Amino acid sequence: MYYLLRDKCNLIVNRSNWSSRIHLLFMPLLYYWHPKNHRRDLDYGAGYHLNQKNHLLHQVDFGDSLWAFTRTADARYVLAAELVVRAKTHNRPGFKYGPYRVWGDLKLSRYFQVQGQPSVEQIIRSLSVTTRAAHLGQSFQGLRAVKPLSIADHQVLVEAARDLPLEPRARILPEERLEAALLLGDREAVYQLIREENPGVARERQRYLYQAAPVRNRSLAEQLHELYDGRCQVCEWNPRDEYGRNLCHAHHIQWLSRGGADDIDNLVLICPNHHSAVHSCDAPLDFRAGWFDFGSHTERLRLNSHLTLWAA
Ligand SMILES: [Zn+2]
Ligand SMILES: [Zn+2]
Predict the structure, then answer these.
(1) Considering 100, 127, 161, which residue would you say is the last residue of a domain?
(2) Do 61 and 157 have their domain in common?
(3) What pLDDT does residue 42 have?
Protein backbone atom coordinates (compact mmCIF):
# COMPACT_ATOMS: atom_id res chain seq x y z
CA MET A 1 0.00 0.00 0.00
CA TYR A 2 1.15 3.53 -0.73
CA TYR A 3 0.86 5.86 2.20
CA LEU A 4 2.91 8.80 1.06
CA LEU A 5 1.05 11.55 -0.72
CA ARG A 6 1.93 11.54 -4.37
CA ASP A 7 2.76 14.59 -6.31
CA LYS A 8 -0.56 15.43 -7.85
CA CYS A 9 0.78 17.02 -10.99
CA ASN A 10 3.00 14.05 -11.79
CA LEU A 11 0.10 11.76 -11.17
CA ILE A 12 -2.10 13.61 -13.63
CA VAL A 13 0.60 13.70 -16.31
CA ASN A 14 1.35 10.00 -15.85
CA ARG A 15 -2.27 9.06 -15.95
CA SER A 16 -2.92 10.58 -19.31
CA ASN A 17 -0.62 7.91 -20.76
CA TRP A 18 -2.32 5.01 -19.05
CA SER A 19 -5.00 2.83 -20.51
CA SER A 20 -8.62 3.65 -19.77
CA ARG A 21 -8.88 0.49 -17.68
CA ILE A 22 -6.20 1.73 -15.31
CA HIS A 23 -7.94 5.11 -15.13
CA LEU A 24 -10.80 3.40 -13.37
CA LEU A 25 -8.53 2.30 -10.52
CA PHE A 26 -7.54 5.83 -9.59
CA MET A 27 -10.25 8.34 -9.49
CA PRO A 28 -11.24 11.60 -7.93
CA LEU A 29 -14.79 11.62 -6.55
CA LEU A 30 -17.65 14.07 -6.33
CA TYR A 31 -19.95 14.07 -3.31
CA TYR A 32 -23.19 15.90 -2.56
CA TRP A 33 -23.09 17.12 1.01
CA HIS A 34 -26.68 17.59 2.13
CA PRO A 35 -27.10 21.25 3.22
CA LYS A 36 -28.45 20.31 6.65
CA ASN A 37 -25.48 18.02 7.36
CA HIS A 38 -23.06 20.54 5.91
CA ARG A 39 -24.17 23.27 8.33
CA ARG A 40 -24.24 20.94 11.33
CA ASP A 41 -20.87 19.34 10.56
CA LEU A 42 -19.12 22.68 10.26
CA ASP A 43 -20.65 23.94 13.48
CA TYR A 44 -18.98 21.08 15.32
CA GLY A 45 -15.66 21.49 13.57
CA ALA A 46 -14.70 20.48 10.05
CA GLY A 47 -13.98 16.77 10.20
CA TYR A 48 -11.53 16.45 7.28
CA HIS A 49 -13.10 13.07 6.58
CA LEU A 50 -16.16 11.58 4.94
CA ASN A 51 -18.22 8.47 5.69
CA GLN A 52 -20.24 6.59 3.11
CA LYS A 53 -22.19 3.38 2.62
CA ASN A 54 -20.98 3.12 -0.97
CA HIS A 55 -17.74 1.11 -1.35
CA LEU A 56 -16.83 3.44 -4.22
CA LEU A 57 -15.52 5.77 -1.53
CA HIS A 58 -12.51 3.51 -0.98
CA GLN A 59 -11.63 3.50 -4.68
CA VAL A 60 -10.26 7.01 -4.40
CA ASP A 61 -6.47 6.89 -4.43
CA PHE A 62 -4.11 8.46 -1.90
CA GLY A 63 -3.39 12.00 -3.02
CA ASP A 64 -6.59 12.13 -5.06
CA SER A 65 -9.34 14.63 -4.41
CA LEU A 66 -12.78 14.06 -3.02
CA TRP A 67 -14.83 17.10 -4.04
CA ALA A 68 -17.94 18.03 -2.09
CA PHE A 69 -20.67 20.42 -3.15
CA THR A 70 -23.74 21.56 -1.29
CA ARG A 71 -26.78 23.82 -1.68
CA THR A 72 -27.11 27.28 -0.09
CA ALA A 73 -30.21 28.64 1.67
CA ASP A 74 -31.11 30.48 -1.56
CA ALA A 75 -30.95 27.20 -3.52
CA ARG A 76 -27.66 27.65 -5.33
CA TYR A 77 -25.25 24.75 -5.68
CA VAL A 78 -21.73 25.65 -4.56
CA LEU A 79 -18.44 23.94 -3.81
CA ALA A 80 -18.05 22.99 -0.13
CA ALA A 81 -14.73 21.18 0.15
CA GLU A 82 -11.84 19.44 -1.51
CA LEU A 83 -10.40 16.65 0.62
CA VAL A 84 -7.02 15.44 -0.60
CA VAL A 85 -7.13 11.83 0.58
CA ARG A 86 -4.36 10.60 2.89
CA ALA A 87 -5.97 7.59 4.59
CA LYS A 88 -8.86 5.17 4.15
CA THR A 89 -10.35 3.31 7.09
CA HIS A 90 -13.38 1.23 8.04
CA ASN A 91 -15.82 2.39 10.67
CA ARG A 92 -17.11 0.21 13.47
CA PRO A 93 -19.71 -2.38 12.39
CA GLY A 94 -23.19 -0.92 12.03
CA PHE A 95 -21.98 2.70 11.99
CA LYS A 96 -24.98 4.69 10.81
CA TYR A 97 -23.18 6.74 8.14
CA GLY A 98 -21.69 3.63 6.51
CA PRO A 99 -18.64 1.37 6.82
CA TYR A 100 -16.25 3.40 4.63
CA ARG A 101 -14.31 6.48 5.61
CA VAL A 102 -11.66 8.57 3.89
CA TRP A 103 -9.46 11.15 5.61
CA GLY A 104 -8.24 14.37 4.02
CA ASP A 105 -4.72 15.66 4.53
CA LEU A 106 -4.99 18.50 7.06
CA LYS A 107 -2.68 20.80 5.13
CA LEU A 108 -3.76 20.11 1.55
CA SER A 109 -7.52 19.84 2.02
CA ARG A 110 -9.74 22.91 1.79
CA TYR A 111 -13.20 23.91 2.93
CA PHE A 112 -14.77 26.71 0.94
CA GLN A 113 -16.94 29.48 2.25
CA VAL A 114 -20.34 28.93 0.66
CA GLN A 115 -21.90 32.38 1.18
CA GLY A 116 -21.47 34.63 -1.81
CA GLN A 117 -20.00 31.85 -3.93
CA PRO A 118 -21.13 31.70 -7.59
CA SER A 119 -23.29 28.72 -8.55
CA VAL A 120 -21.40 25.69 -9.85
CA GLU A 121 -24.55 23.92 -11.09
CA GLN A 122 -23.74 24.41 -14.78
CA ILE A 123 -20.16 23.31 -14.19
CA ILE A 124 -21.25 20.13 -12.39
CA ARG A 125 -23.83 19.35 -15.08
CA SER A 126 -21.09 19.70 -17.68
CA LEU A 127 -18.95 16.97 -16.04
CA SER A 128 -18.95 13.32 -17.11
CA VAL A 129 -21.16 12.28 -14.16
CA THR A 130 -24.87 11.59 -14.73
CA THR A 131 -27.01 14.50 -13.48
CA ARG A 132 -30.41 14.26 -15.15
CA ALA A 133 -32.66 15.26 -12.21
CA ALA A 134 -34.33 18.69 -12.39
CA HIS A 135 -32.94 19.45 -8.93
CA LEU A 136 -29.26 18.62 -9.07
CA GLY A 137 -29.14 17.23 -5.52
CA GLN A 138 -31.66 14.54 -6.48
CA SER A 139 -29.10 12.96 -8.79
CA PHE A 140 -26.96 12.36 -5.69
CA GLN A 141 -29.30 10.48 -3.35
CA GLY A 142 -28.46 7.40 -1.27
CA LEU A 143 -25.64 5.29 -2.71
CA ARG A 144 -25.38 7.75 -5.61
CA ALA A 145 -24.23 10.55 -3.28
CA VAL A 146 -20.68 9.75 -4.41
CA LYS A 147 -19.75 9.60 -8.10
CA PRO A 148 -16.43 8.97 -9.85
CA LEU A 149 -14.85 11.84 -11.77
CA SER A 150 -12.48 11.79 -14.71
CA ILE A 151 -9.16 13.58 -14.54
CA ALA A 152 -10.58 16.22 -16.91
CA ASP A 153 -13.54 16.72 -14.51
CA HIS A 154 -11.09 17.12 -11.66
CA GLN A 155 -9.20 19.79 -13.54
CA VAL A 156 -12.42 21.69 -14.26
CA LEU A 157 -13.14 21.73 -10.50
CA VAL A 158 -9.58 22.79 -9.64
CA GLU A 159 -10.12 25.75 -11.96
CA ALA A 160 -13.55 26.58 -10.48
CA ALA A 161 -12.14 26.47 -6.93
CA ARG A 162 -9.00 28.43 -7.65
CA ASP A 163 -9.92 31.74 -5.99
CA LEU A 164 -12.68 30.69 -3.61
CA PRO A 165 -12.41 32.10 -0.07
CA LEU A 166 -11.91 29.46 2.62
CA GLU A 167 -14.38 28.59 5.36
CA PRO A 168 -13.24 30.18 8.66
CA ARG A 169 -14.73 27.39 10.79
CA ALA A 170 -12.45 24.77 9.23
CA ARG A 171 -9.63 25.32 11.66
CA ILE A 172 -7.99 22.71 13.80
CA LEU A 173 -7.73 23.26 17.54
CA PRO A 174 -4.38 22.53 19.19
CA GLU A 175 -5.88 19.23 20.27
CA GLU A 176 -3.13 17.81 22.43
CA ARG A 177 -3.13 20.88 24.63
CA LEU A 178 -6.89 20.83 24.75
CA GLU A 179 -7.02 17.16 25.70
CA ALA A 180 -4.32 17.59 28.32
CA ALA A 181 -6.27 20.42 29.88
CA LEU A 182 -9.47 18.38 29.78
CA LEU A 183 -7.77 15.40 31.39
CA LEU A 184 -6.41 17.51 34.20
CA GLY A 185 -9.82 19.09 34.67
CA ASP A 186 -8.24 22.51 34.08
CA ARG A 187 -11.24 24.49 32.89
CA GLU A 188 -9.34 27.77 32.88
CA ALA A 189 -6.78 26.34 30.42
CA VAL A 190 -9.59 25.10 28.18
CA TYR A 191 -11.21 28.55 28.15
CA GLN A 192 -7.87 30.15 27.41
CA LEU A 193 -7.23 27.83 24.45
CA ILE A 194 -10.59 28.57 22.94
CA ARG A 195 -10.25 32.31 23.52
CA GLU A 196 -6.94 32.25 21.66
CA GLU A 197 -8.51 30.60 18.62
CA ASN A 198 -8.81 32.60 15.47
CA PRO A 199 -12.11 34.43 15.03
CA GLY A 200 -14.82 32.79 12.95
CA VAL A 201 -15.10 29.51 14.87
CA ALA A 202 -18.75 28.69 15.42
CA ARG A 203 -20.37 29.56 18.74
CA GLU A 204 -21.95 26.11 18.86
CA ARG A 205 -18.59 24.47 18.84
CA GLN A 206 -17.29 26.72 21.58
CA ARG A 207 -20.30 25.96 23.77
CA TYR A 208 -19.83 22.26 23.13
CA LEU A 209 -16.22 22.34 24.23
CA TYR A 210 -16.77 24.74 27.14
CA GLN A 211 -19.75 23.12 28.76
CA ALA A 212 -19.98 19.48 27.86
CA ALA A 213 -16.54 18.00 27.41
CA PRO A 214 -14.57 18.95 30.55
CA VAL A 215 -16.97 17.30 32.96
CA ARG A 216 -17.76 14.12 31.05
CA ASN A 217 -14.28 13.44 29.78
CA ARG A 218 -12.71 12.68 33.13
CA SER A 219 -15.13 9.96 34.18
CA LEU A 220 -14.73 8.19 30.82
CA ALA A 221 -10.95 8.29 31.17
CA GLU A 222 -11.28 6.80 34.66
CA GLN A 223 -13.42 3.99 33.25
CA LEU A 224 -10.74 3.20 30.67
CA HIS A 225 -7.96 3.21 33.26
CA GLU A 226 -10.04 0.79 35.29
CA LEU A 227 -10.77 -1.43 32.30
CA TYR A 228 -7.17 -1.71 31.09
CA ASP A 229 -5.45 -1.51 34.45
CA GLY A 230 -3.81 1.71 33.26
CA ARG A 231 -2.13 0.07 30.22
CA CYS A 232 -1.63 1.54 26.74
CA GLN A 233 -3.97 -0.29 24.35
CA VAL A 234 -1.30 -0.18 21.64
CA CYS A 235 1.95 -1.18 23.37
CA GLU A 236 0.58 -2.50 26.70
CA TRP A 237 3.04 -0.40 28.68
CA ASN A 238 1.78 -0.01 32.22
CA PRO A 239 2.99 3.17 33.95
CA ARG A 240 1.47 1.92 37.21
CA ASP A 241 4.19 -0.76 37.39
CA GLU A 242 6.99 1.77 37.14
CA TYR A 243 5.59 4.96 38.57
CA GLY A 244 2.55 3.87 40.53
CA ARG A 245 0.48 6.39 38.56
CA ASN A 246 -1.96 6.55 35.67
CA LEU A 247 0.02 8.22 32.88
CA CYS A 248 -1.94 6.96 29.86
CA HIS A 249 -4.34 9.31 28.10
CA ALA A 250 -7.86 8.81 26.85
CA HIS A 251 -7.57 9.87 23.21
CA HIS A 252 -10.60 10.84 21.10
CA ILE A 253 -10.35 8.63 18.01
CA GLN A 254 -12.26 11.25 16.09
CA TRP A 255 -11.02 14.50 17.58
CA LEU A 256 -13.55 16.58 19.50
CA SER A 257 -12.72 19.61 17.42
CA ARG A 258 -13.48 17.62 14.24
CA GLY A 259 -16.96 16.60 15.29
CA GLY A 260 -16.02 13.56 17.41
CA ALA A 261 -18.34 12.53 20.23
CA ASP A 262 -17.25 12.49 23.86
CA ASP A 263 -18.35 8.92 24.44
CA ILE A 264 -16.50 5.74 25.26
CA ASP A 265 -16.89 4.34 21.72
CA ASN A 266 -14.76 7.25 20.52
CA LEU A 267 -12.00 6.86 23.11
CA VAL A 268 -8.90 4.74 23.30
CA LEU A 269 -6.41 4.55 26.19
CA ILE A 270 -2.85 5.17 24.98
CA CYS A 271 0.51 6.07 26.51
CA PRO A 272 1.90 9.62 26.09
CA ASN A 273 4.33 8.48 23.36
CA HIS A 274 1.60 6.86 21.32
CA HIS A 275 -0.68 9.82 21.96
CA SER A 276 1.91 12.21 20.65
CA ALA A 277 2.57 10.03 17.57
CA VAL A 278 -1.14 9.62 16.81
CA HIS A 279 -1.64 13.40 16.82
CA SER A 280 1.51 14.30 15.02
CA CYS A 281 0.82 11.76 12.22
CA ASP A 282 -2.97 12.41 12.37
CA ALA A 283 -3.30 8.61 12.49
CA PRO A 284 -6.85 7.30 12.11
CA LEU A 285 -8.04 4.04 13.70
CA ASP A 286 -9.28 1.39 11.26
CA PHE A 287 -12.13 -0.52 12.92
CA ARG A 288 -11.87 -3.43 10.48
CA ALA A 289 -8.12 -4.05 10.85
CA GLY A 290 -8.03 -2.83 14.46
CA TRP A 291 -4.94 -0.68 13.94
CA PHE A 292 -3.77 2.90 13.88
CA ASP A 293 -2.60 3.94 10.43
CA PHE A 294 0.53 6.09 10.88
CA GLY A 295 1.12 6.53 7.17
CA SER A 296 4.58 4.91 7.30
CA HIS A 297 3.20 1.78 9.01
CA THR A 298 0.33 0.49 11.12
CA GLU A 299 0.14 -0.50 14.79
CA ARG A 300 -2.53 -2.84 16.04
CA LEU A 301 -4.46 -2.46 19.28
CA ARG A 302 -3.05 -5.27 21.39
CA LEU A 303 -5.60 -4.65 24.11
CA ASN A 304 -9.23 -4.02 23.37
CA SER A 305 -12.38 -4.91 25.19
CA HIS A 306 -14.53 -1.81 24.75
CA LEU A 307 -14.38 -0.89 21.05
CA THR A 308 -16.50 -2.86 18.62
CA LEU A 309 -14.17 -3.94 15.83
CA TRP A 310 -15.02 -6.05 12.79
CA ALA A 311 -14.75 -9.79 13.41
CA ALA A 312 -11.33 -11.13 12.34
ZN1 LIG B 1 1.85 2.95 23.92
ZN1 LIG C 1 -5.67 12.69 21.50
Answers:
(1) 161
(2) yes
(3) 82
